[in-house]
Design a protein that fits this description.
heterodimer, A: 383 residues, 6-stranded antiparallel sheet, 2 helices, globular, B: 648 residues, alpha+beta, Cytochrome Bc1 Complex, Chain D, domain 2, 4-stranded antiparallel sheet, 32 strands
Chain lengths: 383, 648
């Protein structure tokens, strides 16, 4: 442990009194600097991915429509945050606009956002249907007015000219060229449960997180489905560590084109599949902060788990875990590091994530954006 | 009671016919529905040229003329005013563009869903490029690398890479995008949408779509309230205000039709659109003003072509139903707009006394003027007269007609051509407010609006406008099925209730009806060229022809899709049926069964247009299974059924 919770009176004695007249924030910064210096001197830094030591939070106090942020999607310099009370657009460090049903959006409860890089259109999954925001106008899709399977839409992804939706009654696919809809559920695809929570797309495949049905994968060229389920069924223990998907209740999927792996977050641990082997992680045998994972994202050599206890990152190049969460007592940020040798270390940062209950995250260059139960957090890396 | 017996007998006869024919095979039934028209046999569409699009070469020496009925492009020498070259292109060509160096022409072929690339010098077709469904408007980007094509039936814009000839992407437009224009500085592509989508009981709202060719993305969707049928787009130069001038039609369709006599029911004008600022979310904003080109006692129906002189002093707008081109003094127009109360745009858009402030000439053209082009030196304007196969040449100095270029079409006017001329002619209506084509634009479409016809009470008996494409063999007509044939439909009753005039003579009605019955539906973009159905479409076909519910229960014959929508007669039983769609505002309960052919291209649906999409027919407006037994179907089955219907 780098910093103890108790004040070190021996240090206090050798420092000038003016030190203690500094503001709390200044002391926190100084502590972070000292911590980083000590951390670097220990040699551990070389084994650790870059750390996010500064957080800027967005809440209703500075323009967010609600604290409950269900999703965040980066679109170049723009950031879309789906909340309980509308869709927020952030740019240049501020909330620029909040969209609601008054603007024509189908519902205010926004669960997922996907940007079509080809057209610039913003697709929105909401509890009430789906919307597309295109050049200032919304167009809505519901099960009554379109081929959408169900109005509880949890996820959306763009794959070429198709837009995929994860709904409570299976996956829906819209062909943007001819307007035709397809529905995939237990009747025509290997869904044990049709309740789809999340969708991720690669050039070759579409990955669907099915709540209770594992991960269901659609091969685009071959037009066939393949399910990935927990080999031990509904058991909430893992008999063999990498035997397969960790549990069938999958809350989210993410595809990493650099490693060609897909990752699945479950309420009982984290699973990744590289095409041949599974890579499973639980709190008991890794630095994962909680097995209850709401979302997962993967980029480069890292996978990020959005858990109920904080944001955990696994850098699988160095096999190092880093977890970010707020210190409930001090309100400062906490960084927990689990090194490859199993040793753990802890750092404090002057700012912290808005909340430890994490739902979603995305990348913006070197920065990260994190959707939490009490606000949206913008994480900046240490210089 | 007698009516009930008649319905029962009609139903029994229909059922007997269906039971007789179903075993023949469903494909055979579908094929039977496309047999040759009965009533239009004596009318020929051949030979006529029908010019609809113009393009001048950069030096102004060549005028290229696209002829939709002639399936060809003509090159006219502007000095000799003679046709000097021609080339055949695809079926129903509509739009034309040139490469920046002027060496290549691109012509959109609406019914083939292709673009023909033509060598401008040899006037030979080089290659054919595939587009989306129903291409019309066309332009290149500033560098000539990408072709932008408005796909009317696809509701989108194809971006075609001219190096490879392949479509790079499609961008969603509004509804039925028809014409496009590139801004003078090349930084924007504008797309005018002919039709609108929205609640049937609200005034229409049109969209002018804006594409950034650098990003190749839609960057703005300009709302033009209260109007439909945006047509050609002219851009004034920056020195003249830099605005866009777009003709439109402004309907009062929710008012009772008796208001036609007030001279204010259907009005025609222009949207003046100026780029202003960017919104908080980075979307370019535009200021939209609407002014009418009509006068108090005379309408100039069916604005179509628009063009501005290079110096921006004049803007020309053709009224294709009035055989008139209006010459707008743009400085006076700008003054009138500045003087108007900006807080009352609606009032400005309805003023019938304003045009005289800025329309300085009304010049007579040939029949049915469509596109207009102005020479680079501003000396001449050229106007394509679709129903004359001629080009009017306007001397912009004297503001007089300087000549007529004969494009070489047949001089004899067939009865079919006579009917076509009548179709586009607004002079038969009160003050020239409307032609048939006003409410049936683009050669006979439905305008997609619900209209308050006949009943002189606000909000009662509102009915959705029907398409005129492919209606031969689908009589009777009107939603109440009271008109046994088109002669009745378009005869004295139309004159009394719609045109509010003397209307057409007996022989004119016959020719008009003959022309209308000759109108064909374009190929469905949802059906493969081979005619093969996709798996979903085939499943939907099975549902359409099913006789048992999903649970295996027998569906009574009158509750089966094909009972009322019989394939043998264009998917209509040609009788009135009560399918539970009447509302408290309807006087009658049973409505004429609409044919299903081309159903995908004619939203909204049901007699009053309250179903905006095919899905809503069953998800919202069939709660008691009176419109066929459908409540047993899940969403997959409903989607499949709709995919099949879209192939018809």
């Amino acid at each position: 442990m780098i910093f103890g919770k108790k004040r070190d009176h021996r240090r206090e004695a050798i420092l000038p009194k003016s030190w203690w007249r500094w503001s709390a924030a200044s002391r926190s910064c100084a502590r972070l600097l000292l911590g980083l210096l000590t951390f670097a001197a220990s040699g551990a830094a070389a084994q650790t991915p870059p750390l996010y030591t500064r957080w800027v939070n967005y809440t209703p106090a500075n323009g967010l429509p609600a604290g409950e942020v269900f999703c965040v999607t980066v679109d170049g310099p723009r950031v879309w945050a789906g909340t309980k009370h509308g869709l927020a657009l952030l740019e240049d460090g501020r909330v620029k606009k909040v969209f609601t049903t008054a603007d024509g959006m189908v519902s205010n409860v926004v669960m997922s956002v996907a940007v079509d890089k080809e057209t610039g259109d913003v697709w929105i999954a909401a509890l009430g249907g789906a919307s597309v925001y295109s050049a200032g106008q919304f167009r809505n899709y519901t099960s009554l007015s379109s081929g959408l399977a169900n109005d509880l839409v949890y996820g959306v992804a763009v794959q070429g000219r198709y837009v995929w939706f994860a709904t409570a009654a299976g996956a829906s696919r819209l062909n943007a060229d001819d307007g035709s809809w397809s529905i995939f559920n237990e009747t025509n695809a290997p869904f044990q449960e049709p309740w789809a929570y999340s969708i991720a797309a690669s050039k070759q495949k579409v990955y669907i997180a099915a709540w209770g049905g594992g991960v269901v994968v659609y091969d685009i060229a071959g037009h066939y489905w393949r399910p990935y389920t927990d080999p031990d069924g509904e058991m909430e223990i893992v008999l063999y560590r990498n035997q397969g998907l960790i549990h069938n209740i999958v809350s989210s999927v993410s595809y990493n084109p650099e490693t060609e792996m897909f990752w699945a977050s479950t309420y009982f641990g984290l699973s990744g599949y590289d095409g041949r082997q599974w890579h499973n992680y639980l709190t008991k045998d890794s630095g994962l902060i909680s097995n209850f994972i709401n979302g997962v994202r993967s980029r480069g050599d890292a996978v990020w788990a959005c858990t109920q206890g904080g944001l955990s990152e696994l850098d699988y190049k160095t096999n190092t875990w880093v977890t970010y969460r707020p210190d409930k007592k001090t309100g400062r940020g906490e960084i927990l590091i689990t090194h490859p040798n199993g040793k753990k270390s802890r750092m404090e940062t002057p700012t912290s994530l808005a909340h430890n209950y994490i739902l979603n995250m995305d990348f913006q260059g070197q920065d990260i954006w994190v959707a939490t139960a009490r606000g949206l957090s913008h994480g900046l890396r240490q210089p | 009671m007698a009516a009930s017996w008649r319905r029962l007998l009609a139903g029994a006869a229909g059922l007997a016919l269906i039971l007789l024919l179903v075993p023949i095979g469903r494909r055979a039934l579908a094929a039977a529905s496309t047999t040759a028209p009965e009533q239009a046999k004596s009318y020929s569409t051949s030979q006529y040229l029908s010019p609809v699009a113009l393009h001048l070469s950069t030096d102004g020496l060549r005028l290229y003329v696209v002829c939709e009925d002639g399936d060809r492009v003509l090159a006219v020498d502007t000095h000799t005013r003679q046709v000097v070259q021609q080339v055949r292109v695809g079926h129903r060509p509509q739009g034309i563009a040139t490469s920046p160096d002027g060496k290549t022409l691109y012509v959109s072929n609406e019914w083939d869903s292709t673009v023909t690339e033509i060598d401008a010098e040899s006037f030979q077709a080089r290659r054919t490029l595939a587009t989306g469904a129903g291409p019309v408007g066309i332009t290149t980007d500033r560098a000539g690398r990408v072709l932008y094509v408005a796909n009317t039936r696809g509701d989108d814009v194809s971006l075609i890479d001219l190096a490879t000839g392949n479509e790079r992407k499609r961008l969603e437009a509004g509804h039925f995008p028809e014409y496009v224009a590139r801004a003078h500085n090349g930084r924007r592509i504008y797309v005018a949408n002919l039709l609108v989508r929205g609640p049937y009981d609200q005034p229409p709202t049109s969209e002018l779509t804006v594409i950034d060719p650098d990003q190749q993305k839609v960057t703005a969707r300009i709302v033009i309230p209260g109007v439909i049928q945006l047509r050609h787009i002219a851009e004034l130069p920056a020195g003249a205000g830099g605005a866009l001038v777009v003709p439109f039609m402004r309907p009062k369709n929710l008012n009772p039709l008796v208001q036609v006599r007030q001279g204010w029911y259907l009005t025609h004008g222009i949207a003046v659109v100026r780029p202003t600022s960017q919104s908080a979310e980075g979307v370019q904003k535009f200021q939209v003003s609407e002014v009418l080109l009509d006068d108090i006692d005379r309408n100039y129906a069916d604005g179509f072509g628009s063009a501005a002189t290079p110096d921006g002093r004049w803007a020309l707008v053709t009224a294709s139903g009035a055989d008139i081109v209006s010459v707008v003094d743009t400085a006076k127009l700008n003054r009138a707009l500045r003087a108007a109360q900006p807080s009352q745009p609606e009032a400005l858009a309805n003023r019938l006394d304003l045009a005289r402030q800025f329309v300085v000439r009304r010049l007579r053209t040939g029949r049915n003027p469509t596109a207009v082009e102005i020479s680079p030196d501003s000396r001449f304007a050229y106007i394509a007269n679709r129903m004359d196969d001629t080009i009017s040449v306007i001397d912009m100095g004297t503001m007089q007609t300087a000549g007529i270029i004969d494009l070489g079409g047949p001089k004899a006017i067939s009865r079919w051509r006579h009917g076509e001329r009548l179709f586009f002619d607004a002079s038969y209506s009160e003050q020239g407010q409307m032609a048939c084509a006003t409410c049936h634009p683009h050669g006979g479409l439905s305008d997609g609006l619900a209209w308050s016809l006949e009943t002189p009470q606000l909000g009662r008996d509102v009915v959705e406008n029907k398409t005129l494409l492919g209606i031969d063999g689908t009589s009777p007509f009107k939603w109440n099925g009271m008109n046994p044939d088109l002669e009745t439909q378009d005869g004295p009753r139309s004159a009394s209730y719609i045109f509010r005039s003397q209307g057409f003579s007996g022989s004119e009605v016959k020719d008009l009806a003959g022309f209308i019955l000759s109108l064909r539906l374009p190929p469905s973009p949802h059906l493969a060229r081979s005619g093969e159905l996709t798996e979903a479409q085939a499943r939907g076909q099975d549902i359409f022809f099913r006789s048992r519910t999903t649970a295996g229960k027998l569906i009574p014959p009158q509750d089966r899709c094909y009972y009322c929508h019989a394939p043998v007669s264009h998917y209509t039983s040609r009788v009135r049926m009560n399918v539970g769609t009447a509302t408290q505002y309807d006087t009658i309960q049973a409505f004429d069964v609409p044919q299903l052919e081309g159903v995908a291209m004619k939203p909204p649906y049901l007699h009053n247009g309250e179903a905006q999409d095919l899905e809503e027919i069953w998800t919202k407006f069939n709660p008691d299974d009176k419109h066929g037994i459908t409540s047993d179907m899940d969403k997959v089955q409903l989607n499949d059924l709709i995919e099949f219907l879209k192939t018809l």
